[in-house]
Amino acid sequence: MFGLRARSAIKGITGGAVVIGICATLPSFLPHIRRYTQGTPTTTMANTPIKLNDGNTIPWLGFGTGTALYTKDAADIVAAAIKAGFTHLDGAQVYGNEDSLGKGIIASGKPRSELFVTTKLGKLEPGQTVKQSLQESLKKLQLDYVDLFLIHTPTHYFGQFKEIWKQFEEVKKEGLAKSIGVSNFRVQDFQEFLGNATVVPAINQIEYHPYVFKQSAALLEYHKKHGIVTESFGGQSPVFRSKGGSLDPVLAAAAERLSKASGKTITEGHVLLLWQRQRGIVAVTTTTKEARLHEYISIAGAPDLTPEELQAIDEAGSKEYHRHFKPIHLLRNIMPKAALPSLPLSGLFGIVKPSGPTSMDIINKAKILIGNSRLFVEASKLEENKGKPKGGRGRRRGKDNVKTGQGGTLDPLADGVLVVGVGKGTKRLNDFLDCSKEYQTTCLLGCETDSYDSEGARVRTAPWRHVTREKVESALEKFRGEIMQTPPIFSALKMDGMPLYDYARKGIPLPRPIEQRKVTIHSLELIDWKGSNHSYRWPEKQFTAEEKEALEKSLSGIDNEAKVTDETDPEVIEATEDEAPTAFVLKMKVSGGTYVRSVVHELAHAVGSAGHVVTLTRTRQKNYVIGDVEQEGDRQCVKWEVFERALKDEGEKDEEGWAEWEREVIDKMDILDGKNNSS
Questions:
Q1: What does the pLDDT read at residue 556?
Q2: Residue 325 C-beta-side C-alpha neighbours within 13 Å
Q3: Same-domain status, 291 and 210
Q4: What is the model's pLDDT at position 389?
Q5: CATH number of the domain residue 263 falls in
Q6: How far apart are CA 350 and CA 331, in angstroms?
Q7: Which of 22, 168, 511, 647 is deepest in the core (most CB within 10 A)?
Q8: Backbone phi, then psi, for 220, in 5-degree steps?
């Protein structure tokens, strides 16, 4: 279904590899879209069919009943959408409004045969089959069948994909669903069941827009290989949720040109829909406003974006990464926003710590918001702070209104998951100290520092040009599994109540040798070989005579002969003027107490060089993750920028009276209970 004719035409115009890659995914329906451009009703354009791998077709543009319509009566807006020209309707069990979707269909008066209706499987009840669940949906929808039935999220069915998909094949065979597919699936999810499937999923519905374009490339290539059509939700998110990004000027320029060319008002959001159309992506959009329904139908007849505009959008989107819809939300029963336990709350949530500040810097700033929020603090305590300056000392005092702590520090250099406990949640923080954690780290070869990272002083240089990717991958094996590791002396590990780094910096003799500890490296892989193609450089800071003396004194407690030498090779240093030293990225899953800096330090030695950490990201701590969730129970983290904005100005409250940062915390928090923060 992929149009080679369109590909060669664009290649001839631009000669650009990026555009060729884009056009390789253009489906065969696009030439038909162009034939409709002159003198064809826009409703026909909106309902231009895309052929599925089972022979059925799906209209290109769909109206969804999620997002703003979650749990709400959607009957009127669904009927209005159909009357405006939509024939593709996208619902789901978890949206909590299948009954009103069915009522809207009936109210529209549109024949069932002219509509394409989707619903999605949520979480099965114990003992319930897929067929029984679908029959319940059909009863609510007042339909005999749906045109498309999807597994809404893989998170409910890890390890069960083969059995669940077999049941999906049965409902298709029985005619209860004309086509079957999935939603929010990754390549590894497909690989678990596709080899045993007799029916290949027709659709994978995913969040798709330019800000996930680069990250989704491998998945879309997999779709293409297996004839799976990509369907998007959240396609206009860059306009509504990521304003101020690199896409803004590119979208604005395209919107201006298209408005002039068509004589219609084309917005940046409309441009994003057109971008999806030209990539062969089925687009699902939604609104609660009837006027906007007609805009969407009208825009379906707009001219195409130029190849240059397509390329510019791809390139601008690839500069940033913003995923706005989290599969974790699908793990919960969707409920009205007011349905929280009694306030104030106790619980746990994750923050995405930035590189630079200490973990305590982050916690202390977050406390200012937490300690002044009705989400976590008794109303009577908040009353005591009334009348005090919002941004002044009075507000800082409020940070002590509720007990708050963190479950494992990150070095200032490091970024990533930082787990925060509030109220009774602080009693659970110990669970995060010894749990397994996942990291990504960049190692820069040729230079060793006292702290084993780029924050420290340079103490040794060594050749690096002889180190190849193969040599590093071969050396990784000795670090996998259970190993004995000596923590670095420049670490926060305490000996007799004092951090090791204090002994080293103050010249206090260590009372005894630093004990090796048994740690487990569950997995360790090299995921990116940067070579010299990067901007990292060795630290300028040198190991001073005073620092050497202090370190020697601290080591004298365990070895009177200890000497600290500065082994810098002038020839090695000079070589860095011609090319950057080799860098590579490691991904690892480790037990609690493992020092990633020590792994990098020892690995560099193992390949006959020196090395230190220049970036370190904690991507997972127990069930708190950065990026997509991978298993049931995973929770995503709140970006620190959300707190930073609130510290300057909390902004407008939503309809339930919550600020942006509070809503983000509610969405991602493991709520233990309410009215428990005094204990």
A1: 64
A2: 22
A3: yes
A4: 57
A5: 3.20.20.100
A6: 17
A7: 168
A8: -65, -30
Residue closest to 637 by CA, chosen among 466, 432, 489, 497: 432
Six token digits for residue 65: 């009943």
Read off the amino acid at residue 130.
V
Residue among 236, 165, 231, 155 at smallest CA distance from 195: 165
Residue-level pLDDT at 422: 96
CATH of the domain at 475: 3.30.2350.10
Report the alpha-carbon distance of residue 623 to residue 441 in Å, rounded. 20
User: Does 328 map to a domain?
Assistant: no
DSSP state letters, 493-550: -EETTEEHHHHHHHTPPPSSPPPPEEEEEEEEEEEEEEET-S-----S-B--HHHHHH
- Whether 418 and 587 have beta carbons less than 8 Å apart is answered as no
Q: What is the pLDDT of residue 340?
A: 61
33 within some domain: no
Length of the chain: 679
Residue 285 is predicted with a pLDDT of 93
pTM: 0.55
Extract the tokens encoding 407.
């479950």
In this structure, the answer to whether residues 498 and 429 fall within a common structural domain is no
Q: Is there a single domain that holds both residue 45 and residue 92?
A: yes
Strand partners, 458: 449, 542
Residues 249 and 159 reside in one and the same domain: yes
Strands 611-621 and 415-422: parallel
Q: How many other CB atoms are found less than 10 A from the CB of residue 261?
A: 11
Q: Are residues 258 and 135 in the same domain?
A: yes
Q: Whose structure tokens read 């060089």?
A: 609
Among residues 90, 314, 411, 415, which one is catalytic? 411
Tokens at residue 595, please?
A: 């020092």
Same domain? 526 vs 654? no
Residue 85: the pLDDT is 94
Domain span holding position 590: 437-621
Q: Residue 447 is encoded by which pair of tokens? A: 């230079």
| CA 161 to chain centroid | 23
The phi-psi region of residue 244 (left if phi > 0; otherwise alpha if psi is between -120 and 50; otherwise beta) is left
Tokens of 287: 């609104």
Residue from 598, 591, 633, 624 nearest 612 by CA: 598
Measure the CA–CA gap between 630 and 524, rounded to whole angstroms: 18
Nearest one of 527, 493, 532 to 513, comparing CA atoms? 493
Quick check: helix, strand or coil at residue 267?
Answer: coil
For this structure, is 450 an active site residue? no
Going by C-beta distance under 8 Å and a sequence separation of 6 or more, which residues neighbour residue 470? none
Do 224 and 303 sit in the same domain of this protein? Answer: yes
Spell out a b/e string for 472-492, using b for 16 or more CB atoms within 10 Å of the CB, else e: beebbeebeeebebebbbbbe
CA 260 to chain centre: 37
What is the 8-class DSSP label of residue 151?
A: E
Q: What is the number of domains present in the chain?
A: 3
Query: Has residue 32 been placed in a domain?
Result: no
User: Could you tell me if 283 and 273 are in contact, meaning their C-beta atoms sit under 8 angstroms apart?
Assistant: yes
Cβ distance 450 to 543 under 8 Å?
A: yes
Give a yes or no: residue 590 inside a domain: yes
Condensed to tens digits (0 to 9), the pLDDT of residues 642-663 reads 999 999 988 877 656 788 899 8
CB 206 within 8 A of CB 183: yes
Segments of 248-296 assigned E as strands: 282-285
| pLDDT of amino acid 679 | 36
Ranges of residues in the chain whose predicted pLDDT is under 70: 1-47, 242, 324-341, 385-399, 552, 555-576, 628-630, 632, 654-656, 673-679
Q: How far apart are CA 318 and CA 304, in angstroms?
A: 21
77 and 219 together in one domain: yes
